[in-house]
Amino acid sequence: MSALANHAFAKMNGIGNEIVVVDMRDSTAKVTPDDARAVASARGGVPYDQLMVLQKPRLDGTEAFISIYNNDGSEAGACGNGMRCVVRRIFEKSGQTTATFETAAGLLNAWRGPAPDLYTVDMGAPKFGWQDIPLAEEFRDTRYIELQIGPIDNPILHSPSVVSMGNPHAIFWVEDVNAHDLERFGPLLENHPIFPERANITLAHIVDRDHITIRTWERGAGLTRACGSAACATAVAAARLKRTERKVEITLPGGKLGIEWRERDDHVLMTGTATFEFEGNFDPALFAPAG
Ligand SMILES: N[C@@H](CCC[C@H](N)C(=O)O)C(=O)O
């Protein structure tokens, strides 16, 4: 039987990014990709974009090791919106206002503020090297890479910037983020052979030097109302192209995030709300073997 059967969960969202938080710090049991897919089931499950599983801390001074699952059962190194949800949950239970977490992508500091309903997560430093993203072949300059879809002489989307924020991101610069069929092009680009570990695909429109609008097709989760790491990747990619300041507001379908690419240590800070919806216990029938 799955470790998640009857286990308590909290359904939350980070500006519309659907998040389920499970605290398993009192257990050594592992969540499997099958468990993660079962939780997302539309029949009796709790459909989500990301499942955030808190496990016992591995390092002194950290609150938890967090495993992040997409709804297709794959694991992600980073999830900005999910982290704000985890942070809110922990802070409300413990009264803390700061904490450090570990994920597959490394250590993350988080704190409450700058306003009472806001949470800030230090998402770490972006990586731009083609092997770090990773790409399947060498690109010396990842500010724009050669990649396009549509007719060769009149591509629909082309020349994305690529960035790792602990997970791979490709950002296509467009005039109108709603003018493209992301549901159709997203899966093609996510699974393009140039991305050996697949990628999160974002359409971004630079409104002015302080403001960008985006829509994202998430690796392993599809079209979402918000992707925090995509907002960070976009802010960094735009600043790297000198098209925006290092501190910007990002508008996503589900709301707004403040992103600052800090000069002094290269870290990216993401600030936004986190919303609690309901809590419950997983129905064990979800994890029963089929047949
Ligand atoms: N929603 C997340 C990112 C989720 C991970 C992504 N789908 C991946 O596999 O890289 C966010 O808010 O950052």
UniProtKB/TrEMBL annotation:
Keyword tags: Amino-acid biosynthesis, Cytoplasm, Isomerase, Lysine biosynthesis
Main EC class the enzyme belongs to: isomerase
Gene Ontology terms, MF aspect: diaminopimelate epimerase activity
Residues binding substrate: N17, Q50, N70, G80, N81, N167, N200, E218, R219, G228, S229
Reactions this protein catalyses: (2S,6S)-2,6-diaminopimelate = meso-2,6-diaminopimelate
Main location (coarse class): cytoplasm
Cell division is among the record's keywords: no
Site (Could be important to modulate the pK values of the two catalytic cysteine residues): H169, E218
Active-site residues, Swiss-Prot/TrEMBL: C79, C79 (proton donor), C227 (proton acceptor)
Domain of life the protein comes from: Bacteria
InterPro entries noted in UniProt: DAP_epimerase_AS, DAP_epimerase_DapF
Pathway recorded for this protein: Amino-acid biosynthesis; L-lysine biosynthesis via DAP pathway; DL-2,6-diaminopimelate from LL-2,6-diaminopimelate: step 1/1
Compartment(s) where it occurs, according to its Swiss-Prot or TrEMBL record: Cytoplasm
EC number: 5.1.1.7
SUPFAM superfamilies on file: Diaminopimelate epimerase-like (SSF54506)
Subunit structure: Homodimer.
Purpose: Catalyzes the stereoinversion of LL-2,6-diaminopimelate (L,L-DAP) to meso-diaminopimelate (meso-DAP), a precursor of L-lysine and an essential component of the bacterial peptidoglycan.
Family matches, as PANTHER family: DIAMINOPIMELATE EPIMERASE, DIAMINOPIMELATE EPIMERASE, CHLOROPLASTIC
UniProt similarity note: Belongs to the diaminopimelate epimerase family.
Protein name, as recorded: Diaminopimelate epimerase
